[in-house]
C-alpha cells in the first residue's frame, strides 16, 4: 500500500492464499479438449481465499475488493498495466507541469457508466473531491497534496497541487482515483456501478461474486461472458478441483503443492512478480519489545533461508520495508543478519531468555512459517506461543486495538512505505527522521531523487527493527492451455481481466 489506505493482503498471501479460476460453461464442469476457437460465451470461475465484508469501494479496506472491482468494474483516469506500469484509462492523455504542481487530463470520448449515464469531467471532479473531503474514505490521505480539482470542459480535468507529490499518479491508479457516477443512488455496500468492462451482477455472501460482460462498455468489450469469484478456505480442495479438470487457472499456487502441476500436460506453471511482503511485526509499545536490543536479537534469531525453504522456495529474502521492484529498494538483508549465537547472548543479557512471546496470526496462513520461527526462537532461548485466529478477530485485536506482541501478515500492496509514517497504524512505529525523508521523497520532482530519499528512509526503518521482513513472495500461477490473458504478475493486488479469454 503506497499510501495510508488499509490494504493488507487479507487472505491473499502467496504460499497460503489461493486464487483459482476456471473457464467452462459453469462451476464444476470438467474441461474438454480445446478447438482453439474463442468462446465468447464462456464463464470464468475464479476462487479466492478471503471474501470482502462488503463491497463499498470507498470505505471497506482490503485487497479482496481491489482484486475483484478495480479495473473490472471501477476505473480511474489512469490505471496499472499487468506489469505495474501506469497507463491512461478514462484519460486519453495527461501532462504534468515542469514544477510538478499541475496535472491535466483529457478524457476519452464517449465514456459511460454501466447504467448508461455519460461520464464526463464533472463526474471525475465529484469523485475525487468526495475522497479528498471524506476522512473515512480509503485513499483520503493520498490526495493530501491536492489543492483543487476542476473540469475546464466536459472532456478535461485539472488537478492542482499545493506541493509536488511524486506518488499522485500511482494513487490515482488505485482507490483514490476511482470515478463513480454522481447521479447513482445505489447502495455501495452491496452493489457497484462503474465504467469498466464488467458489471457487478450479484453477490452471494459467503459464496461468490459474479461479474458479467458490460455490453455498454465504452471500450473494447470483454472476451468472456462472465466471471464468478468463488471463495475457498482450504488449499487442498482448490488444488484437487483444478487437477480434476473443474478449474483451469490456479493463482498463488501453494508452494508445497505446486509439484502437482509440474510436468502436467494440461497446465503451465508460471512464476510472476509480487509485492507480497510477509512481515513479522514487533509491537514496540509492549515490553520487552520496546527494547531495540531485544528486537534486533529476535531478528538475528531468524534464518530467512529456512523460512523460504519451508514455503516451498517461493520467496526472496527481503531484509527491509521496501521489496525489490518498488521505488527506493536496496538490499538490506545484511541488517541484523542471521546469527543465532549473537541472538541468544543478546536475549540473555536483556533478561528475555526463558520468557514466552505470543505471536498472533490469521489462521489462513497455515503453520509452515510459524513452525520454523518457533524452532528458531527456541534455539535463541525464547518460547514462541502461536495464537492462530480468524481474520475478523485479527482485524479487531491486532489491526484496530493493537493488542498483540508479535504478528505476521502479508502486506501485498505495492508502494506502501507510507505505512511506516502513518500515525496510529498498527505497526506502532514512529521516527521523525523517517517522516521527514518520506515527505522529501513525495515532494521530489524526479524519480531518482524520490528513490534516494525512500532508500535512506528504509535503511532507518530497518535499523530501528520494528519488524522482521521474512520474505517477498513469488506468485505461482497454473494456467490451462485453453486459457489466455489471465494476469500472472501482482495478482495479490488486482486482477485485470480485460484480456481474459477461453477457447472452446
Task: Provide a compact summary of the structure.
With 504 residues, the chain is an alpha+beta fold.
Can you walk me through this structure?
A hairpin with a 3-residue loop joins strand 9 (198-204) and strand 10 (208-213). The chain is of the alpha+beta class. The longest helix is centred in the last third of the chain and has 18 residues, at 447-464. It has eleven helices and 22 strands. Helices cover 22% and strands 23% of the residues. It is globular. Helix 5 (292-300) runs antiparallel to helix 7 (340-349). The protein has helices at residues 63-69, 121-132, 168-172, 235-243, 292-300, 304-310, 340-349, 368-379, 391-400, 432-443, 447-464, and strands spanning 19-24, 43-48, 78-80, 86-88, 91-96, 102-107, 146-153, 156-161, 198-204, 208-213, 226-231, 249-251, 267-272, 277-282, 315-316, 356-362, 383-389, 406-411, 467-473, 475-480, 483-484, 501-502. The strands form five sheets. It has an eight-stranded mixed sheet with strand order 9-10-11-2-1-12-20-13, with helices on both faces. Strands 15-19-14-18-16-17 form a six-stranded mixed sheet. A four-stranded antiparallel sheet has the order 5-6-8-7, with helices on one face.
